Amino acid sequence: MPFKSTKDKLTLNEQDLNLLKRISQARSEEFRRVERARMLLHYAEGLSIPKITELLQTTVPKVNRCVDKALEQGVGAALKEEKRSGRPPEITDEAKTWIVELACQKPKDLGYSYEVWTNRLLSKSPPTTKGIDRCQLSISTIIPS
Fold first, then answer.
1. How far apart are CA 128 and CA 145, in angstroms?
2. How far apart are CA 136 and CA 145, in angstroms?
3. What is the pTM of this model?
4. How far apart are CA 98 and CA 47, in angstroms?
């Protein structure tokens, strides 16, 4: 006697089905979204989770998480990444504002011999009391090139 899944069936309306088909065939979409869309399409077609993992060459827990999320929160939520806690930003809003205001001024007006700002000049400019751990990386994230 084959194993019967205890999970609910995923029923897709026309809009969700079209969305999943479009994403699963997209070449410019993130791979993880394409993979999740394919998982959900296969599951909605009635394939078992082990068969889906075999077809997509992925893991059972990954498919289970995706299907469970779709059953609980909907197809749209299953395709998205959940927000992670991550490291809190070290640059305050006040510091970002100060850097942008500084970059909007000409270096010559502030006594520098340069015509334009570079990330290196901005990272070395005083004062250091604005709560900025100034390095070229943080400058380039505040002011994109």
1. 23
2. 12
3. 0.59
4. 56
Q: Is residue 26 helix, strand or coil?
A: coil
For residue range 23-36, what is the model confidence (pLDDT) as tens digits? 999 999 999 999 99
How does DSSP assign 86-134, residue by residue? Answer: -PPPSS-HHHHHHHHHHHHS-GGGGT-S-SS--HHHHHHPSP-TTS---
Distance CA 88, CA 120 (A): 24
Question: Is the distance from CB of 44 to CB of 14 less than 8 angstroms?
Answer: no
- The dihedral through the CA atoms of 61, 65, 71, 74 has a sign that is negative
Write the DSSP symbol of residue 6.
-
- What are the CA-CA distances from residue 97 to residues 48, 81, 116 (Å)? 53, 30, 19
